[in-house]
């Protein structure tokens, strides 16, 4: 056995140390591709193969998806905890603030804040017939007293403000617009007529500019000029087409020469 065969046999006997290499049944096998490898010399070629690279990419994608799926509940729980803490903080701030919009303490139970009784109620009591039996008033509870004070201080105040707004709206006076003369009285009629004439001239659009008639000589020169322009356009178009054709011929010749040189080089190589 020559040295080359010995070296090959030694290389085949060497055990592959790689995270994806496995010798479960004595045969070298790739755990990613589940593919048996003939010998250790073919391991490097398998790692560089397209199928192995695709399997590696697929495995990485699956691992990333699993990691994200595992992190998603933790993120949701952290977000929920953050929302709960923010809600609790807002609630504490609201509770700690003084009741700026609410009524002060002992507002309804303070008798000094109650409004005096209306005169109409007193007059109705005086006009009531004396023969009617006077029924003893029922003792008002504290809740009724607070409700009565609330009506007098809040509801009656809103009704009074609305009645003032309605009274102000009814007091508004509307007048028709009055047209004024163009010129005050006392100005001469001639000045007014001049002013109206000047305004009429400004309002009228300017007349269109007259188009001069074309003479026979001018028409002849115009036709000759148009004919010359057409001839020049045709000449330029023909020159452009000829130039494109020359370029195509030159490109074809260059390609033909390249093919000939390649053939000659191949024949010499043989």
UniProtKB/TrEMBL annotation:
<dbReference type="GO" id="GO:0044773">
    <property type="term" value="P:mitotic DNA damage checkpoint signaling"/>
</dbReference>
<feature type="compositionally biased region" description="Low complexity">
    <location>
        <begin position="129"/>
        <end position="142"/>
    </location>
</feature>
<feature type="region of interest" description="Disordered">
    <location>
        <begin position="180"/>
        <end position="226"/>
    </location>
</feature>
<feature type="region of interest" description="Disordered">
    <location>
        <begin position="59"/>
        <end position="149"/>
    </location>
</feature>
<dbReference type="InterPro" id="IPR036236">
    <property type="entry name" value="Znf_C2H2_sf"/>
</dbReference>
<keyword id="KW-0479">Metal-binding</keyword>
<feature type="coiled-coil region">
    <location>
        <begin position="235"/>
        <end position="262"/>
    </location>
</feature>
<dbReference type="GO" id="GO:0008270">
    <property type="term" value="F:zinc ion binding"/>
</dbReference>
<keyword id="KW-0175">Coiled coil</keyword>
<dbReference type="InterPro" id="IPR040050">
    <property type="entry name" value="ZNF830-like"/>
</dbReference>
<feature type="compositionally biased region" description="Low complexity">
    <location>
        <begin position="64"/>
        <end position="80"/>
    </location>
</feature>
<keyword id="KW-0862">Zinc</keyword>
<dbReference type="GO" id="GO:0033314">
    <property type="term" value="P:mitotic DNA replication checkpoint signaling"/>
</dbReference>
<keyword id="KW-0863">Zinc-finger</keyword>
<keyword id="KW-0539">Nucleus</keyword>
<dbReference type="GO" id="GO:0033260">
    <property type="term" value="P:nuclear DNA replication"/>
</dbReference>
<dbReference type="GO" id="GO:0003676">
    <property type="term" value="F:nucleic acid binding"/>
</dbReference>
<feature type="compositionally biased region" description="Basic and acidic residues">
    <location>
        <begin position="217"/>
        <end position="226"/>
    </location>
</feature>
<protein>
    <submittedName>
        <fullName>Uncharacterized protein</fullName>
    </submittedName>
</protein>
<feature type="compositionally biased region" description="Basic and acidic residues">
    <location>
        <begin position="87"/>
        <end position="98"/>
    </location>
</feature>
<dbReference type="GO" id="GO:0005681">
    <property type="term" value="C:spliceosomal complex"/>
</dbReference>
<feature type="compositionally biased region" description="Acidic residues">
    <location>
        <begin position="117"/>
        <end position="128"/>
    </location>
</feature>
């Amino acid at each position: 056995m020559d040295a080359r065969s010995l070296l090959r046999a030694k290389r085949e006997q060497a055990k592959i140390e790689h995270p994806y290499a496995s010798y479960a049944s004595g045969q070298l096998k790739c755990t990613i591709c589940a593919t048996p490898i003939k010998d250790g010399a073919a391991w490097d070629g398998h790692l560089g193969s397209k199928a192995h690279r695709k399997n590696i990419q697929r495995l990485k994608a699956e691992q990333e998806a699993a990691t994200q799926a595992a992190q998603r509940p933790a993120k949701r729980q952290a977000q929920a905890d953050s929302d709960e803490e923010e809600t609790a903080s807002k609630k504490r701030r609201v509770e700690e603030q003084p009741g700026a919009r609410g009524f002060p303490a002992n507002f309804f139970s303070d008798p000094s804040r109650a409004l005096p009784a209306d005169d109409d109620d007193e007059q109705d009591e005086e006009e009531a017939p004396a023969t009617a039996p006077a029924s003893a008033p029922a003792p008002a509870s504290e809740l009724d007293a607070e409700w009565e004070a609330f009506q007098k201080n809040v509801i009656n105040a809103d009704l009074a403000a609305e009645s003032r707004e309605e009274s102000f709206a009814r007091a508004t006076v509307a007048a028709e617009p009055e047209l004024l003369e163009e010129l005050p009285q006392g100005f001469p009629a001639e000045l007014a007529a001049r002013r109206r004439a000047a305004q009429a001239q400004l309002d009228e659009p300017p007349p269109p500019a007259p188009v001069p008639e074309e003479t026979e000589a001018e028409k002849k020169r115009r036709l000759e000029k148009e004919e010359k322009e057409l001839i020049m356009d045709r000449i330029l178009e023909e020159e452009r087409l000829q130039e494109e054709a020359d370029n195509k011929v030159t490109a074809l010749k260059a390609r033909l020469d390249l093919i000939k040189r390649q053939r000659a080089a191949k024949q010499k190589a043989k």
